[in-house]
Automatic annotation (TrEMBL):
The keyword Metal-binding applies. This is Aminopeptidase N. It comes from Undibacterium arcticum. Residues 34-190 form the Aminopeptidase N-like N-terminal domain. Residues 452-558 form the Peptidase M1 alanyl aminopeptidase Ig-like fold domain. SUPFAM superfamilies: Leukotriene A4 hydrolase N-terminal domain, Metalloproteases ('zincins'), catalytic domain.
């Protein structure tokens, strides 16, 4: 078995580039079989470098010709080995001319220049530009680009690149050209080109300064009716960034292009954002409420990168969270502000935290755990993770919590004033925040350098005579790969105190606290253990701890059920109301799982159902919030509560609880369904989508006790739905119900769904996804689905929709006792590795925590991991994750 890894790259070994690039003139003669690329670089020796050689990266390229200062270089004048081209003895000023050939049609990795549906696209982050030409392909080499595109006019009528269009015309031989100039320096990972048959929706938009810019959304013909929401999201993003951070669009135009074959969600190339179609195309017929929200979020995210990532970029890839964590925080704030209400912001916050807890906390506890600013990597593509993005965003949010919203804006202003046009480090962002607010954030740096999820334990005591209430907080953090010992973090813990009626007390704290919102103080935990004393407390309070999830930690506090019920019913902090419901549910799910594992009788106390009834019937609460409260913790979240995971017992426990809730609240659920119908024309606004969310959750519960009436309710919704949200929800409810009537109805509905949408790729992705996640889908069913003519491994969306859904979101079937799920997983990893290593490596993560399972399951998982490890031509991407998983 191969466990050896390619050489790791370490942050401590960073050295400055030997030469800086001033300008890049690059021309393309585009042909799908062989594209000729001519590049002219003006370069200057970097006085900060100790390396005397010019160092260029190249991968999967044919070098045709290389000239330095007009002189043709033979093989004696350079070395080319292991994807690195070096030129010794270069003068301080160099003009380097490079001619290369690349083969876009064969490029299934979707990195560099590739062909999708007959059109040309690029993806250069992180290291894709080296598949286009030889170049110092690193983010700290920033240059101004001029791009010439030449192609067949009939086949590729649209020619796009970064920046501003300065010239275009015919070449007289059926070909045409377009010349683009980007006035801003950028690293090579932000380069982009598109040559395609596309149409666009465009608008002229006036910025707050009065300057007018051109906005374009480019799509394939037939999709133009699906671009309005993306356009509106772009305009909202531009306006929000002007108002919240004073940041203006700096180009004359801004373009979004949608492509069906794309490894990522989208890419922030300067002025030419290339998007996965999933995050552009929407109309009520094909897109759900979640799709609409995701499009707004991702459009915002990529636009906000124009400043946090493009104008100020990363010195090296270890600093990836400098741009990604900060920009995720910005898109989260944008999405919350677009809802506009306090409850809407709370719903958004809860959704973000659910993702963090379910995916990032699990990553922190596994073999791929790494700090927000990693110390090393083998393949950078493996570090586009939830730790970099979502935990990185939480780190930025904690800064805002510590310095306040106005202080955060001051810090952002100073950050741009200091570093516009530079490639910098995470420490530079932290320094700007500290200096702008005169705060000592030195200890806060540990959030960047230490991996793992801190555990914060809270203990309280009340003195009725002195009328004081003490909260003692202690913190620990488990060892992670390469980090056995952790120093104390700087943790903001937002707290409130509730009286017996659930009202906020006025808070008086001796020290160590800063003002928060009304009724809330932010305690700053900086030691292993600290005690905070509140005075003038006239009665025993119930603490509301970690309000708004003020830090990405696991909070331990021994709440009683009665205290949780009080918080659920009355806490002024919506997040902690939801959190109380999750604690009540999780407490019971853990007991039910233990009972199921021991073949004991399963029971659920009426107190829990009564608590949910109170929320469900409370019309003062937004439907979206009630939906979140009534959504039980996922099976993955329950699994995190156990040192040894039994997927079958967890599934049985959660299904039992769902069934008991459905039975106990049947009347209330029917009422919630009927009172939250949305018969008017479809709108994705928060109010309407919230009603649909609660209604469809009610439907899924009602199908737990499927009879003729509930099946007909779901079928009627499926048949008459005037939007994809309701249609997909009805189909999902039927697929996951266990009665014969529901199974028959689901089979019929699946066939009709496919027939109605077979020409809509994004909807067929949903069709595959629903079946991959369905409780009845086993490996045999998966193999049958993979033979469907609409399925292909080559399209990342299609592979994710079916295979990833089964392996990551159907644990009871994936973790089948016979190990068939693991054997299936190994086959798909090996197949994907040969096509698209990035996608394959992400699938490997489904088994990276194999040691959490029972010995028999471990044995079967180990066989599957070893099969992958021993396969031929294993990519760096897959090899790194498999090796770390085996070594854990």
């Amino acid at each position: 078995m191969r466990t050896d890894l390619p050489q790791a790259i370490y942050r401590k070994d960073y050295t400055a580039p030997s030469f800086l690039v001033d300008t890049v003139d690059i021309g393309f003669d585009l042909d799908p079989i062989t594209t000729r690329v001519a590049t002219r670089l003006t370069m200057t020796r970097n006085p900060d470098s100790v390396n005397q050689n010019i160092v260029l990266n190249g991968e999967a390229l044919e070098l045709v010709q290389l000239r330095m200062n007009g002189k043709l270089l033979t093989k004696r004048g350079y070395t080319l080995q292991g994807g690195i081209l070096q030129i010794p003895d270069a003068p301080d000023q160099v003009v380097l001319e490079i001619e290369t050939l690349t083969h876009p049609e064969k490029n299934t990795s979707l990195m560099g220049l590739y062909v999708s549906n007959g059109n040309f696209f690029t993806q250069c982050e992180a290291e894709g530009f080296r598949k286009i030409t030889f170049f110092p392909d690193r983010p700290d080499v920033m240059a101004k680009y001029t791009v010439m595109l030449r192609a067949d006019k009939k086949k590729y009528p649209v020619l796009l690149s970064n920046g501003n269009l300065v010239e275009q015309g015919d070449l007289g031989d059926g070909r045409h050209y377009a010349k683009w100039e980007d006035p801003f320096k950028k690293p090579s990972y932000l380069f982009a080109l598109v040559a395609a048959k596309l149409v666009c929706q465009e608008e002229t938009y006036q910025l707050k300064s009065g300057r007018k810019v051109l906005l374009q959304v480019w799509v394939e013909k037939g999709n133009l009716d699906k671009t309005q929401h993306a356009m509106e999201s772009l305009k909202h993003s531009i306006r929000w960034d002007e108002e919240r951070f004073g940041l203006e669009l700096d180009l004359d135009r801004f373009m979004i292009v949608a492509v069906g074959d794309f490894n990522m969600g989208a890419m922030e190339n300067k002025g030419l954002n290339i998007f996965n179609t999933k995050f552009v195309l929407a109309n009520p017929r094909i897109a759900t409420d979640v799709d609409y929200a995701n499009i707004e979020s991702v459009v915002g995210h990529e636009y906000f990168h124009n400043w946090t990532g493009n104008r100020v970029t990363c010195r090296d890839w270890f600093q990836l969270s400098l741009k990604e964590g900060l920009t995720v925080f910005r898109d989260q704030e944008f999405s919350a502000d677009m809802v506009g209400t306090a409850s809407g912001r709370a719903v958004k916050r809860i959704e973000d935290v659910r993702l963090l807890r379910q995916v990032q906390f699990a990553e922190d506890a596994g073999p791929m755990a790494h700090p927000v600013r990693p110390d090393s990597y083998v393949e950078i593509n493996n570090f586009y993770t939830v730790t970099i993005y979502e935990k990185g965003a939480e780190v930025v949010r904690m800064v805002q919590t510590l310095v306040g919203r106005d202080g955060f804006r001051k810090g952002m202003d100073l950050y741009f004033a200091r570093h516009d046009g530079q490639a910098v480090e995470c420490d530079d962002f932290r320094a700007a925040m500290a200096d702008a607010n005169r705060r000592n954030l030195k200890q806060f740096e540990r959030w960047y350098s230490q991996a793992g999820t801190p555990q914060v334990k809270a203990e309280t005591s009340y003195d009725p005579l002195a009328k004081t209430f003490e909260i003692t907080l202690s913190q620990t953090c488990a060892a992670t790969p390469g980090q056995a010992k952790k120093l104390p973090f700087h943790i903001p813990v937002a707290v409130g105190l509730l009286d017996a009626e659930g009202k906020d007390l006025v808070l008086h704290c001796d020290d160590g606290a800063s003002a928060g919102v009304a009724g809330t103080l932010v305690l700053e935990l900086t030691k292993a253990k600290q005690t905070f004393r509140f005075t003038q407390v006239n009665e025993q309070p119930v603490p509301s701890l970690l309000r708004d999830f003020s830090a990405p930690v696991v909070l331990e506090y021994d709440y009683s059920d009665a205290e949780l019920a009080l918080l659920l019913a009355h806490d002024s902090d919506p997040f902690n109301r939801w959190e109380a419901s999750q604690r009540l549910a999780m407490r019971r799910l853990v007991k039910l799982t233990d009972a199921a594992r021991n073949n004991e009788q399963l029971t659920l106390d009426p107190m829990f159902i009564d608590a949910l009834r109170g929320v469900l019937m409370d019309d003062t609460l937004d439907p979206a919030f009630r939906e979140l409260v009534l959504t039980l913790p996922s099976e993955a979240m329950v699994a995190e509560q156990f040192s040894v995971v039994d997927s079958q017992a967890i599934h049985a426990a959660r299904q039992f609880m769902r069934g008991m809730v459905a039975q106990g609240l049947r009347t209330e659920l029917l009422n919630a369904y009927e009172t939250n119908l949305t018969p008017d024309a479809y709108s994705p606004d928060a109010e309407a989508s919230g009603k649909r969310g609660l209604k469809n959750l009610a439907l899924s519960y009602l199908l737990e006790w499927a009879d003729e009436s509930t099946c007909q309710l779901a079928l009627a919704q499926f048949d008459t739905a005037h939007n994809m949200t309701d249609r997909q929800a009805a189909l999902s409810a039927l697929l996951n119900a266990e009665s014969k009537a529901a199974t028959k109805a689901a089979s019929k509905s699946l066939k009709r769904f496919y027939k109605d949408f077979k020409n809509e790729p994004l909807v067929i992705d949903k069709w595959f996804m629903l079946q991959g996640m369905a409780h009845a889908t086993d490996v045999a069913a998966m193999r049958a689905l993979m033979t469907h003519p609409a399925f292909t491994l080559k399209n990342p969306n299609r592979a994710r929709s079916l295979i990833f859904s089964f392996c990551n979101a159907n644990p009871a079937r994936f973790h089948a006792a016979d190990g068939s799920g693991y054997a299936f997983w190994a086959e798909q990893v090996i197949a994907l590795n040969a096509i698209n290593p990035q996608v394959a490596a992400r699938l490997v993560r489904s088994l990276d925590r194999w040691r959490k399972y029972a010995p028999k399951a471990q044995e079967l998982m180990l066989l599957a991991l070893q099969k992958v490890a021993n396969s031929k031509k294993l990519s760096k991407d897959v090899q790194e994750v498999v090796s770390k998983s085996l070594a854990a």
